[in-house]
Amino acid sequence: MAETELDILAADPTPLKFSTGFQVEVVRLRTRQVFRLLKVLTQGAGPALSTLDFKAEPDEFMQRLLALVVISIPEAENAAIQFLASMCRPAGLVDKKPRDLTKQEREGNDALWAEFNEELNNPEPEDTIDLIEEIITREAPHLQALGKRIGALVGMFTKTGQDKEKAETPPTPEQLNSPELSPEPSTF
Question: Residues 58, 141: contact at Cβ < 8 Å?
């Protein structure tokens, strides 16, 4: 049965356990994470990104996206780590407003974030792949739908001729040397 948007929003995050025993919760993809993912893909996959077919079957799209993200990592190492860190948080955080946390809860959260930063600074390769796989599996349907929407907008842009508006062409060398465009002689 297809997951509804309400199901997605109401779902409790499932912890992902790293090989070190540390657990993270994968969060929902939002605008900043989309931009970080695009940075990874454009830096790492470059022209191969054009092979991503948003109209493909969902499983095929997910597999292609997963492959593109994985092959992008060597060329976009820092961007990839930043993306992964932005897509999860430590499991077990006390989820209250900062002002409502007790001193002990705040210290516990701080300790979890410190360990999180250490773990995500240079995770084990299998943990990196597990995390990427979890993110892409969860978010592929949303990314595919977003890609279709953007494709429709680009199609509308093209169909209405907005992509063919005449740009001002620069003057040719002959035009630049013509007397009409030459500056007035100086008296200095």
Answer: yes
Give the domain ranges of the chain. Answer: 5-176
Overall residue count recorded for the chain in this entry: 188
- Does residue 9 carry a pLDDT above 50? no
Which of 115, 128, 48 has its CA nearest to residue 82? 128
Residue 106 vs residues 88, 99, 115: alpha-carbon distances, Å: 19, 10, 14
Quick check: 68 pLDDT over 50? Answer: yes
Reading the block at residue 59, the tokens are 């499983």
Q: Which residues pair with 184 in a beta bridge?
A: none
Average pLDDT score over the chain:
85
Across residues 18-23, what is the average pLDDT? 97
SS3 for 1?
coil
Angle at 174 (CA atoms; ends 170, 176), nearest 5 degrees: 55
CB 26 within 8 A of CB 88: yes
Bridge partners of residue 23, in order along the sequence: 17
How far apart (Å, rounded) are the C-alpha atoms in residues 118 and 138?
A: 25
In this structure, are residues 70 and 37 in contact, taking their beta carbons and an 8 Å threshold? no
Give the pLDDT band (50/70/90) at residue 1: very low
